[in-house]
Amino acid sequence: MITAARKEHFYSQLATLLEAGMPVIKAAEHLTKHSSGTLGAMAGGMQRGLTEGMPLADAMKSYGGRDAELLDIAVLRSAERGGKLEIGARYLVEYYRMLTQVWKQWKHAMAYPLIVLHGALLLPAVSLVGNPDASFWKLVGIPVCIVYLLAGFLFVMANLFYRQAADNESLDSVANHLPFLGGFRRNLAQARFCQALEIQLQTGGNVSEAVKTAGQAAGTAKLKHEAAEMADLIATQGCQLGPLLLNSRAISPTLAQSLNTSEAVGRLDVECGVQARKFMEAAEQSAVLCGIWIPKMLYVIIAAFAIYKIFTFYLGGISSLGSGILE
Q: What's the domain range around 293?
């Protein structure tokens, strides 16, 4: 799995090469030569598809492997159709930079609760002093292994859950209403939708296709499905986007109202850019709240576990002392 930091660096290189005027196939070739591991494999897949005559987004989708995220593909497709591939790459740089910063904040916030947890897990080792019959594996090894296995299982399941939520509306609804994390996800989705829409509209792209691709870039099932329906209505019935957005349940009411008004005065592309920045800032603020409150909640749970271990440790010691006195 490619980390957000490595993707930030990858798209930064791609944007720099494209901004310098290098053809996209040459840029992919350069990235393939200078990337390693899964990132190099993804770049190689992009180069292969481009050599076969595919657009960059399709090349990534076909040959990029499982690390080619739907968001990346949709944003690059939006930028490519709008003739501004370098802008799409630069947007992905900012997006993954934000995720990298968020991850660093969360790791920093989680440091103290994890120290407390390990202290609680190692506490039973005190009973080994002067007690040669006690088993380190039983007292410390097994509990530590259980905690690590549980943490790994929860991480895998959470990752699977969020991936499935991109296509399953029921899971999508649950993910969007999770405490703290739900707000972060909703704001990110709105920001990605607006950014992808802006890129295409600025170059006079087809509104129907722009809306559909923007929905895919959002990365949430409800918004993707509603965007596809709106695109169909625009293409077949000539509907305006603004009124459709006002009836959407996946779009924020304030966002829908802003885009509806801007469409009426012919400034939809400009307003999309403004709203994209607004919701990205909101996502960052939501991430800060997550970094503050989630570690605190975990700290309470871990502290309760530590108190429990201390309590049982002393009870065990008192019990052993009582047995010794009786003997």
A: 95-327
Residue burial 248-268, b: 16+ Cβ < 10 Å; e: rest: bebbbeebbebbbebbeeeeb
Dihedral of the alpha carbons of 75, 76, 82, 87, in degrees to the nearest 10? 90
In 3-state terms, the chain is what percent helix, strand and coil (to 5)? 85, 0, 15
Pair 122, 177 in one domain? yes
Contact 211, 200 (CB under 8 A): no
pTM of the model: 0.76
Structure tokens at 92: 């992905």
Query: Nearest to residue 215, comparing CAs of 46, 74, 48?
Result: 74
Q: Write the CB contacts of 58 (distance below 8 Å, at least 6 apart in sequence).
A: 49, 77
Q: Which of 287, 305, 296 lies closest to 150 in space, CA to CA?
A: 305
Distance CA 190, CA 280 (A): 8
Total number of domains constituting the chain: 2
Which of 292, 295, 314, 293 is CA-nearest to residue 303? 295
Measure the CA–CA gap between 176 and 187, rounded to whole angstroms: 10
d(C-alpha 231, C-alpha 300), whole Å: 47
Q: Which residues of the chain have pLDDT under 70?
A: 1, 66-68, 125-134, 203-205, 309, 313-327
Rounded to an integer, what distance in angstroms lies between the CA atom of residue 302 and that of residue 189? 32
Q: Is 185 part of a structural domain of the chain?
A: yes
Reported for 147-150, long-range contacts at CB under 8 A and 24+ positions apart, including other chains, are: 147/117, 147/121
